[in-house]
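Please check what follows.
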Amino acid sequence: MKEKKILAPAAVLAAVLLLCWPFFARVSPQDIRDALAGCGGWAPAAYVGLFVLLPAVFFPVAVLALAGGLLFGLWAGSAYTFLGAMLNCALMFLLSRHVGRETVERYVERKLSPRWRQRLERAGGREGFLLLVVLRLIPAVPYNLINYTFGLTPMSLGTYLAASAIGIIPGTVVFINIGDKALDPASPAFWGALALLGLLLAVTVLLGRRLFPDDITKKGRKT
């Protein structure tokens, strides 16, 4: 009951943000950077706040990460993004488990095959932990879908956050690095950042196919 009381305001705020989706859908990384730059010393807190809330209404996390790289640079941007992402993971997981479970269940039924729903229903222990790490590593698998779906599983919040932390770090650094180098798109550093993204995609697809030889990447692209 206490968790529901705490999460209720977040659910209301998420609903308000969802109503504002037509506006957010047109927002670019540069727009976010410019808006946050006007916050002065509060820019890091504002950025983390956006990362906590906006993914809950399916705003693309890549857009936020690129904005973080543009504004804060590689290392500070990575730190702020990681903090915001972890807080958002906890928020979406708890919203799914305690507030909007029925809505999430209907959403997951539309997005995942019966085979994957059965696998996630048993997500626990070492296999569930490893599954979540791999899903986090693969950029093609929607970040938002993972957060809400795992709220329906028997996995504990602590285990979920630990696996998420491991899986989120590589993608965070890669996307923040692209944002950091995007101010000079003709530079070798920018093309090197893109090459790192390509390497991450290749490695994670191969890893996913090796560890979970089924439709993991196919379902990620469809969703």
Observations:
- Residues 74-99 form the longest helix (26 residues).
- The two ends are 32 Å apart (CA to CA).
- Confidence is low (pLDDT under 50) at residues 215-223.
